Amino acid sequence: MQKITQDKLLEKAVSLLSNGTVSAVLGWSKGEFSYDVTPKMFKTEDDLKENFIWNDFCGVNFSKYLVSKTDRFEGKILVFLKPCDTYSFNQLLTEHRFDREKVYAIGVPCEGMVDVSKLKAKTGEGISEIKEDGENLKVTKIYEDNQVAVPFKDVLLERCINCKSKKHVAYDELMGDEGEVIDSNRFDEVAKLEALTPDERFAFWQNELSRCIRCNACRDACPACTCEKCVFDNPASGVENKAPANSFEEKMFHIIRAYHVAGRCTDCGECSRVCPQNIPLHLLNRKFIKDINEFYGEYQAGAEVGSRAPLVDYTTEDLEPGEVFDRRDTDA
Amino acid sequence: MQVNEHKPLIVAFCCNWCSYAGADLAGNNRLNYPADVKIIRVPCSCRVNPMFILRAFQRGADGVIICGCHPGDCHYTSGNYYTRRRMAALFSMLDFLGIEKERTRVEWVSAAEGAKFAATMNDFVEKVTALGENKRLEDLRCKR
Description:
The structure holds 2 protein chains of 2 kinds.
Chain A: H1 6-18, E1 24-29, E2 38-42, H2 45-51, H3 63-70, E3 77-81, H4 83-94, E4 103-107, H5 116-123, E5 127-133, E6 136-141, E7 148-151, H6 158-161, E8 173-174, H7 188-194, H8 198-209, H9 217-221, H10 247-260, H11 270-274, H12 282-296, H13 323-331
Parallel strand pairs in A: 1-3, 3-4, 4-8
Antiparallel strand pairs in A: 1-2, 5-6, 6-7
Chain B: E1 10-15, H1 19-28, E2 37-42, H2 50-58, E3 63-68, H3 79-96, E4 104-108, H4 114-131
Parallel strand pairs in B: 1-2, 1-3, 3-4
């Protein structure tokens, strides 16, 4: 359901690669099926023509890849950025995580990406082919002749349901039309949880977080988590790379993970997208964003390069930690 | 006689320059505050990493209180301003996860406020005792 076609992107990538503007292309590559799309560094035209893909499953945010890919790489890298990716791109630039000169960024419009687990929940396993058909996705399955039509809107990724912006905030070249920042009510879900009693909230999170297998995918995919040495890799910490032994560890990992990106999280939603257990991790991040907006004024990480994150800043008139609850309790 | 009366374990992170001296003054003035409070001295209240707080809960603390200089009086000029923002965000998140909000607190205690230190600790221990044992952020392996 994407407005821009794969051919156009491929044509652009091939021409920039062949005329020497860039030495590599960071793009989406074909997998076994059309829905398992993998990030790849393309270095030759043949490889591009053979494997490059652009479809409804290209959810990967390439911003973080630039940190490792531009390091010790000669020449420029072409990267395709969807609107939400550009916020992460800016945030990483703010933190001086990669060299802007080494990147040629092309903004591509995005109509929302599909969550394959949601699709599978509707159609069942054994998907062999997915075709776009107006507002629907036509799904063919291996052992069945009839096609199943699934509305595109019903299988969007969690983050795309409440898309915050169709506007690119950083690019060298834009393909297609520029969109607008959208008021997407993305904090509704958080507000709903806040309205529950502490016991209900505890039960909710206990239920969600107990599914965590500590695969660290949320950390690894997060464009804000770019520390080379992570606290969770410290062998002395007792919580390094292993499944949580009890409910404490689950909570600690997720609180600290969300806390470490608080104020810098652009709400790109990669954490929830990559979670194999479908834990709504973006709600933790959104809680921090919502709080920061309420306490210290509206702030969108990555909206501009060089802005100062709220938690590394202060004013002498900030509210006291205890007042956080007083405020909320008087509101209720 | 109550045999299994719960004695809470309270961890107090006190900054070296104000609150730790405040605790000292409370002692010098013979002011009573519960022995359940274990003081950990830190160079500045902003030295307290969110992980310290969670770790304290893991190791069996029932409440964690952070004491620092009054805003504007930080020995390092601005440390406690950062603490204020950090802890506001962290406490709100703990509350979001359903952990009792009375278990965590930030208080500003200067070196001259021995009485305030004792009063704060008395009040905090009373509140935490009323809540009972920390069940929601406990690690059974660390229980004595």
